Amino acid sequence: MQPPRNWMIHFLMTLAMLLIAAKASAADRPNILLIVSDDQGYNDLGLLGNGILTPTLDRLAKEGTRLTNFYVAWPACTPSRASLLTGRYPQRNGIYDMIRNEAPDYGHRYTPEEYPVTFERIGGMDEREAIIPAVLKPAGYKSGIYGKWDLGALRRMLPTSRGFDDFYGFVNTGIDYFTHERYGVPCMVRNLEPTEEDKGTYCTYLFQREALRFLDEHAGKEPFFLYVPFNAPHNSSSLDPTIRSSVQAPDRFKAMYPPVEAETRVTDRYRYGAPATVATPQARRRDYRAAVTCMDAAIGEMLKTLEAKQILDDTIVVFFSDNGGSGGADNSPLRGHKGQTWEGGIRVPCIVRWPAGKIQAGQVNDEFLTSLELLPSFAAAASVEPPAGVVLDGFDWWPTLRGESASPRKELFWKRRDQIGARVSQWKWVQMGEQGGLFDLDRDLAEKQDLSESHPEVLAMVKERYAHWLREMEAAEPRGPFRDF
Length: 485
Hints:
GO terms for molecular function: arylsulfatase activity; N-acetylgalactosamine-6-sulfatase activity. The protein has 14 helices and 20 strands. The chain has 485 residues and is of the alpha/beta class. The chain has a ten-stranded mixed β-sheet, covered by helices on one side. A four-stranded antiparallel β-sheet has the order 17-18-19-20, covered by helices on one side.
């Protein structure tokens, strides 16, 4: 017996509505691929013409929007990473200095009894802080992180205790690319367990392998947040001066660059153990570039996988460096480098690709934007609410990236111990020990002309805005590990 015709029509209409709703739901939950390099210079993109080979990053810029006025919240690793994941200033989320041991700076290798009670082992991000994967989880996102964590090594502080579903990587600020040790201490972890299963394999290859495995398991089946924080091109963390003075890279990527006359030199001035054999500046520059090119190839494999699954255009791809470049990096035309509040320590390369989100291809955007914008922007793209009762220091950047409105950001402040940076509109005040001054970034991006004497009223205004920010940070609900409460 045939069902009534109106029943069949109703069934088909209901099915169509469900399919439309499912499609709309998927559109409201774009995939997210966040890629962060480590210590990459502002000018270290092949498309900028300095000779470095980055075909994948060049492709991202051609198919997306390159940000030229993009900042991170601190000029070095740990606080920068905490801020990009929380959307909060380092002084607000509690990670306003490095989680690292300083004894290896003087050649000390920790014993198995010493290391477990050092700050590098027991320090970590306050457990009350909400990070991106936890914010996206209610919308059904699967999340993975493969690479550098740097926000705590104890189990309760590891990524899978903070909202990530899967983790493989190292927990400290830097490692030897092959042994996966930090100054002799094994640092690789899978989820909650230490592992040396892949010792001897170049770690960029490992992070590529894990990211591709994650995509094979989840891409096209459910929305995902994939965070790949490479350690390339960070210097190698080894007590051997020859290794430590450069960046490890596979030979096949070194061979892509012109040979150098001398690989090493002997110096009588070294932080410990002089005389020491160290890499020549030319070798260090080549090794740095080779590490970047190897990382670029790994990113290319991720894009190929997303293309094969026909979801690349529906995936938000964001790339930037965690702070300014050092070692063999090229930060031109900026002044300074990693660890400093000059532009070269805090303004970094950034690229965003998302055709389905109407991010235009081949555009260069000079709006004032920062890594603090990531969490609120990802939440907006996924149609989820940001964490309740939490003060965020960023905003939804999509209208600005689409060219619909100017960036609402007018200020940003940095404090690294006694090093200060404050930007208000185009004005930048820097205090770097005995150096510093007031600079007009619209006319003097290289921070060469100090305008303190010619514009005292502007300097006073910027200093007052900085003082206001300090008071706000001091009044914020305290977070560990550094704050006394």
